[in-house]
């Protein structure tokens, strides 16, 4: 049976990928996750023991990582500190996990000759003007803005160097903004949904003109599986579902879908260095691997997501208070 190590498999997108593999393959999945504030073992509930081994640990711990890597056929590396706002208040864990953690995994992959797919972000390319006709492609120069995106860019550079210098069998994907069930309530969409569910109001940074390119998490998972199984070694693939929306429209749509007035939200101070627009051109992935997103109706995906947060309050309620206390301290 094919054994796959998934780092960060108790996080939002990593756990979605584990569930995707359960439905679409017969792999045995080994999850390595530190269970930081962002990891939640409840996101993996219901998976039979013969399909999943869960190990709590830090990807920086080479003594733990090396034997683990020797016991699997491939690695998909999701583990990261993932939130821009946190990286502005304390960059340190971002350097630890995103840079050193990726280095430790690459060394283990080099020593054991293990295939590795590295999960990255469109934020490594910086941002676009609102009226720029161009979108990000695999050839766009790196230009990260935040401590988070600069550590993700660093990790991509390490992967490229290990592939070229040591022939590590690596691929990279850079995806746009994900949404869907199991996303931590610190992130934009679940924060607004749960604010409304607890009787509060959505919080919009600045004027809300910033544009993000939304993709339903299941579509990210199907793209990663396509790259893992059929992608060309050494290549980078951009993943996106043509889902550009400005933040103000997204807040207004959430309010409408939840039966509230479209202007029942608060403006809060803008994020420092806030990227204006991300937009992905995923032509390479679509042409080479025949991948297509299944969830191309944003309003339907958002409705499903709202329903999930409404019926799974026990999954998010424990972290809601701490998250809002943190935002309160930073004025957001
Ligand atoms: P998340 O914050 O929800 O989950 C991260 C997971 O990694 C958590 O389970 C956490 O416990 C674990 N983790 C953190 N540090 C660790 C360490 N040192 N050792 C082991 N485990 C550790 O993040 P997410 O939104 O699911 O993002 C997953 C990956 O996808 C990240 O690499 C991120 O950069 C990338 N990505 C995210 C998005 C998005 O929209 N969320 C888009 C593109 C790419
Ligand atoms: O583009 C991919 C990236 O998308 C991933 O690499 C990151 O891991 C992921 O967190 C996400 O980064 P963003 O910074 O775009 O996502 P976030 O959910 O933090 O914010 C989305 C937009 O919403 C951004 O323009 C900031 C704004 N925002 C955010 C919050 C939390 C608000 O207006 N109000 C809020 O309360």
TrEMBL record:
Cofactor(s), by name: NAD(+)
Keyword NAD appears in the UniProt entry: yes
A molecular function GO annotation: dTDP-glucose 4,6-dehydratase activity
Enzyme's top EC category: lyase
Domain NAD(P)-binding, chain residue ranges per copy: 5-303
Catalytic reactions of this protein: dTDP-alpha-D-glucose = dTDP-4-dehydro-6-deoxy-alpha-D-glucose + H2O
InterPro entries: dTDP_Gluc_deHydtase, NAD(P)-bd_dom, NAD(P)-bd_dom_sf
Keyword Translocase among UniProt keywords: no
A GO BP entry: nucleotide-sugar metabolic process
The protein's Enzyme Commission number: 4.2.1.46
Pfam families tied to this protein: GDP_Man_Dehyd
Keywords, sorted A to Z: Lyase, NAD
Descriptive protein name: dTDP-glucose 4,6-dehydratase
Organism listed in the record: Mycolicibacterium chlorophenolicum
């Amino acid at each position: 049976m094919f054994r796959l190590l998934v780092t960060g498999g108790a996080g939002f997108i990593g756990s979605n990928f584990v569930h995707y593999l359960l439905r679409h393959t017969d792999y045995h999945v080994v999850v390595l996750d530190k269970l930081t504030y962002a990891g939640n073992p409840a996101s993996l509930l219901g998976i039979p023991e013969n399909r999943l081994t869960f190990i709590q640990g830090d990807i920086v711990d080479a003594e733990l990582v090396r034997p683990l890597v020797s016991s699997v056929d491939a690695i998909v590396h999701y583990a990261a500190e993932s939130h821009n706002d946190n990286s502005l208040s304390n960059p340190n864990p971002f350097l630890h996990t995103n840079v050193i953690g990726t280095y430790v995994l690459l060394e283990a992959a080099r020593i054991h000759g293990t295939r590795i797919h590295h999960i990255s972000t469109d934020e490594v390319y910086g941002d676009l003007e609102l009226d720029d006709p161009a979108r990000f492609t695999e050839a766009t120069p790196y230009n990260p803005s935040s401590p988070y995106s600069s550590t993700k860019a660093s990790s991509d550079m390490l992967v490229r160097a290990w592939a070229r210098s040591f022939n590590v069998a690596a691929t990279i994907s850079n995806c746009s903004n994900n949404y869907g069930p199991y996303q931590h309530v610190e992130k934009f969409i679940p924060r607004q949904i749960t604010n409304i569910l607890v009787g509060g109001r959505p919080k919009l940074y600045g004027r809300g003109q910033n544009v993000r390119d939304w993709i339903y998490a299941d579509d990210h998972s199907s793209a990663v599986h396509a790259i893992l199984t059929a992608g060309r070694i050494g290549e980078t693939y951009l993943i996106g579902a043509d889902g550009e929306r400005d933040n103000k429209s997204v807040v207004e749509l959430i309010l409408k879908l939840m039966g509230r007035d479209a202007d029942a939200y608060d403006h809060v101070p803008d994020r420092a260095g806030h990227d204006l627009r991300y937009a992905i051109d995923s032509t390479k992935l679509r042409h080479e691997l025949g991948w297509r997103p299944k969830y191309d109706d944003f309003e339907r995906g958002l409705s499903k997501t709202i329903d999930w947060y409404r019926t799974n309050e026990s999954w998010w309620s424990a972290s809601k208070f701490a998250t809002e206390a943190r935002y309160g301290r930073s004025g957001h």
